[in-house]
Structure formats: C-alpha cells, structure tokens
Amino acid sequence: MIVRNSAQSSNKSINNVDKVFFSAFLYVLLFVTVYYASTAEWLMFFLVCMCMCMLDFVFVHAFMCVRPYLNDYLSLLQQLTGTLALAVFAAALGSLQYGYSLGVINAPQKVIEKHYGRSLGVWSERVAALSENSTDEEKFSEAGEHPDVIKYWSLSVAIFSIGGMLSSFLVGFVGDLRGRVKGMLMVNVLAVAAGLLMGLCKMWKPHIMVISGRAVMGFYCGLTSGLVPMYIGEIAPKAYRGALGTLHQLAIVIGILISQVIGLDFVFGNDDMWPLLLGLSGAPAVLQSLLLPLCPESPRYLYIILGKDQEARKSLYRLKGAYDATFDLEEMRKEKEEADREPSVSILSLIRSSMYRQQLVVALMMHLSQQFSGINAIFYYSTAIFTRAGVGQPVYATIGVGVINTIFTLVSVALVDKAGRRTLTLVGLGGMCCCAVAMTVGLILQDKYSWMSYVSMSAIFLFVSFFEIGPGPIPWFIVAELFSQGPRPAAIALAGCCNWTSNFIIGMTFPYIQTWLDSYVFILFAVLLLGFAVFIYLRVPETKGKSFEEIAAVFQKGRKKSTQSPKDATELQQLKTATDA
Questions:
Q1: Number of other CB atoms surrounding residue 244 within 10 Å
Q2: For the ranges 131-145, 275-289, 369-383, 469-483, the one whose mean pLDDT is highest
Q3: Which of 166, 517, 533, 541 could form a Cys-Cys staple with 429, CB 3.0–4.6 A?
C-alpha cells in the first residue's frame, strides 16, 4: 500500500510538472509573439491572453489526462478478439467511404468546373483567352464564373446531402429487414453504382453523370451513417462501447484526409485523373463486401428481434471468444422482455410519444451541436485564413487541419470510456466556444496587426482538436445507447436525418451568413456553442459503463412522478398497435 501510494504521488507530481511546463511554454510563446508590438497593441494582447487563459485551463486539464489512459487503450487492443476486430474494421469501411465522399469533391473543383463548362457549351480555353482581353461582360475567363456552371456545381455538392436526408429515414427499415450485416451488404450496391457513374463520367455528359453519382452516393451514405454505429454499438463489449463507437468518426476523418491528399493536383486532382478520384468513392464498398460475410450478425438483433437465442450465443462466442455468456444473455433477455412490451416503434410514433421525448430531445440536440458548432464553417474558411496569414500553399495547411482531425479523434478513442461521453462533450464545446472568440478577435484585427493571423491559425487548429475530442464522434453512437431495442432504429433514423438536414442548411446558408457578418461570423457559433454546452450540462446523463437498461432507467427516473399513471399504459398500447411508417 505504501509503495502504491508513493507511485501515485510520484505520478501526480510528474503530471503537475507537465502542466506547469506546458502552461509556461504557452505563455512564453505568446510573449515572444508580441515582443515587438507597439504599446497600442498591448490592450488587444491582454484580451487575447484572456481567451488563451481559458483555452489553457481547458486544454491542459483535458489533454494531460491522456497519458494515464494509454495503457488502458493498449489493453483494449489486447482484449479484442480477431473476429470482433474484423467486424468493427469491416463496418468502419462504410464510414471511411462516407468521409471520402464528403471531402473528395472540394479539391478538384476548378478542374471539374472546366469540364462542366465544356459539356454545357458555355466555356472553352479559346474563349477564356479571348475574354482576358475583352470587355464583353458575357465572356468569362474561368468556367466557374458562368451562371450555368455555378448552378450545376452547387447541385453537385448539395445533392449529396439531399440524398443522405432522404435515405436516413430508411435506416431502421434496412437494419431490421435482413439484419445489420446483410443490410450493409445490400446498400453497397448503391456505392459501387455511384462510383461507376462518377468514374465513367467522361463517357457522356460529366455534369449529369457526376450529379447522378453524388445523389446515389449520398443516399448510400445516409444509410451507412446509421447502420455502422448501430452495428458497432450492438456488438461492442459494454466496457469499450464508447471507444469502438468512436471508430465511426475516426474512419470518417481518415476518409476526409485521404481525399485531401490524393486530391492534390499532382496526384489525382488534375485534368486527366479527376474521374478516377471521384470513382474511388466506391472502392471501400468492394472491400467491405468481401469482408462482411465473414462477420457475425449482431447478437442483440438475433436474440431480441428474431428470438434466436442459440444463434445469439454462437455470435457472442465468435465475437468474444470462449467465455460465460450468461450475463450478456440475461441482459438481452431483460431487454427483449422490455421490447415485447414496447415493440418496434415507428418514426411517427416516436415523435408523438411522450415516453421517449426526453431521450429524443437529447439525441437531436447532440447532433445539432455537432453540425451547428461551426466545424463545417471552419473547413470552408480555413484556406482563406491561411492565405491571409501569408501561407504560401494554404492547401497543405488545410491538409494539416485534416491531420489534427485524425490525431484528436484517436485521443477521443482513448478517453471516451474513461472520462465519459458527457464530460468530453462539455470539454469539447467549451474549448470550441473559446476558440471561436479568439478566432473572431484574430480575424477582426489581423489586417491591422500581422501577428493576429497566427492567433487565427492557432484557434483553427485548437477548434478542430476540441471538436474531435467529443462533439464530433460522440453523437454518432450515443443515440444507440439512449434507446432500448424497440425505438432504437427509429431514433437513429431521426437523428441521422437531423444531422444530414443540419449539414445541408449550414452548407447552403453559411456563405450568406459570412457575407452578412463578415469577421464576426464565429461569434454566432460561439453563442450557439455556449447554449449547447448549457443544455448538455443540465439535461444529458452520463452513459459510460451503463447497460442499455440502466440508461433507460435514468430517464424514467426523471419522469417517474408524472408518468407512472394509466396514461403510460394507454400510450404503450397505442405504440404496440401503431402501424404508421
């Protein structure tokens, strides 16, 4: 005991030294940055320091706790069976494809616009050369300036989100139709078809082929963004459900990073190779189709939905190896009894029901906090900030943001089952709020004070870091934790539709908001982030290490006094007999 206490004291001392060293380094760096500033700049420096102090408090105390958990993360890898690792990897390929499809359209924009212009007959290199020496307003030096090209390009980007919005409602139906594994297998046909449409777009009209391919790919991604977290959440051991659930977001950001790298003009983002760049969107689906038949079906689906207890036992043994499955089967038996009292709940029934209203509000707010946090605006605005900061090749700085994205998602994987979902989400939202304020200050003053551009750049990297710590990955899998088996598919479908709709709204409105608010645009996101943080602090329970039954009991406890009445029995009976979609 004395040795253990001494070791703990030693570790605490080391951690304190680390914190002091990091804080000292941060403030010395700030001091050196403004050493040559004039006296008039010190007031603004004080304001920036106030923001950095808040960031320092959150950053140091949040991220210095990563080191003690690294051994636990390594022990998780050692406890994973080969079958479980294969199943998670195979499912996450769908998330990788989702991330790749999100990012792949941005890099070759200028090249694709030229092909659109040629296909539409509104632009050519000869006309572009003539327009440079002409005053004719109807001639355009770049294809992207023509209204028809702008229209079709905007549709190419937006149609992806529209497809996801529509298909997200079908997640529960597809997942329950033939199971989670066969559901993911079936929808891969859409991904392959979309990849072929885009990869072969030069054979016909590129703008029609690309828009069609993006629509089909969006429809696929809307399904896989719900099926993947559902499957992983149901096969993951309770102790590591958060870490494995976070892999969905990790695969997404890796997909985005891959698309950014191979989208460079000297790789595939050029005039000759861009169709292949888009066509590769369907490649992960081919690999996933080869691996999924080797993966076991979700034990919860087999036991609770189909009532096949022996098949569920075999699936558990395949996923976890030789062990006593009595506890897991007993937990599923209780959940099945609960599900028999509340059979599959349709989307419309879930919206109308007061029994699940608290969980549903929490689930939707978690997804709203992810999309309305401003993260998409950051990716939209980062290149401009890096350009104004004097970065010679801003595209590489943007790729650096993608690298930070990936690294801190890995940090979240290591922390989520130790620090907890609620804690990491609050830390992430709080840090992002401070970064948004610091970014606003930097954007307003970087034309006047050159060193402010570095404040903006630092705030971008920190903003992305805090996003991937909690608000990015956690909403994807926490919905599956908040609901029991009956309403879970409908809840995931609604949350997915909310996410895709929010993404579409941000994508369509942010350029106008940016024009309206200019450098103050991130103040709007700071206010939203603060509101989301307050809501989560007051209304979202911690789900770490709890069974689905225990999580449901938390919400039932909050409404116990008002709901333990004949009204509950009547509403439950209505849910049982509901047949609406």
A1: 25
A2: 275-289
A3: 533
Q: How many Cβ atoms from other residues are within 10 Å of residue 14's Cβ?
A: 11
Hey, is 561 helix, strand or coil?
helix
Instruction: Please state whether 140 falls in left (phi above 0), alpha (psi between -120 and 50) or beta.
Output: beta
426/541 Cα distance (integer angstroms): 12
Distance from the Cα of residue 315 to its chain's centroid: 29
| Rounded percentage of the chain residues whose pLDDT exceeds 90 | 29
Please state, in angstroms and rounded to a whole number, the distance separating the CA atoms of residues 244 and 254.
15
Q: CB of 439 within 8 A of CB of 451? A: no
What DSSP assignment string belongs to 485-496? TTTHHHHHHHHH
Rounded CA gap, 556 and 318, in Å?
A: 34
Angle at 183 between CA 95 and CA 335, to 5 degrees: 95
Q: pLDDT tens digit string along 473-499?
A: 999 888 888 887 778 888 888 998 999
Q: With cut-offs at 50, 70 and 90, classify the pLDDT of residue 44.
A: very low
The residue type found at 142 is: E
As a whole number of Å, the CA-based R_g of the chain is 25
Task: Tell me how far apart the alpha carbons of residues 523 and 42 are, in angstroms, rounded to a whole number.
Answer: 22
Buried b / exposed e over 289-302, threshold 16 CB at 10 Å, is beebeebbbbbbbb
Number of Cβ within a 10 Å radius of residue 546: 16
Mean pLDDT (the chain, rounded): 79
What does the block give as tokens for 2?
Answer: 């004395």
Contact predicate 234/179, CB 8 Å? no
CB neighbours of 369 closer than 8 A, spacing ≥ 6? 425, 429, 471, 475, 529, 532, 535, 536
Q: Exposure pattern of 46-77 as b/e (b: 16+ CB <10 Å)?
A: eebbebbebbbebbbebbeebeebeeebeebe
Give tens-digit pLDDT for 516-541.
Answer: 887 888 899 999 999 999 999 999 98
Token reading at 550:
């225990």
DSSP structure string for 357-414 = HHHHHHHHHHHHHHHTTSHHHHHHHHHHHHHHTT-S-HHHHHHHHHHHHHHHHHHHHH
pTM, 2 dp: 0.77
Residue 293 confidence class, pLDDT cut points 50, 70, 90: very high
335: which 2 tokens? 């959940």
Determine how many CB atoms are found less than 10 A away from the CB of residue 341: 13
C-beta separation of 259 from 103 below 8 A: yes
**What is the distance between the alpha carbons of residues 72 and 243, in angstroms, rounded to a whole number?**
11
Higher pLDDT: 336 or 280? It is: 280
CB distance 386 to 394 below 8 Å: yes
Q: Are 346 and 171 within 8 A, CB to CB?
A: no
The CA distance from 413 to 468, in Å, is 10
Residue 117, CA distances (Å) to 71, 251, 270, 470, 481 in order: 55, 34, 16, 42, 48
Q: What was the pLDDT predicted at 573? A: 52
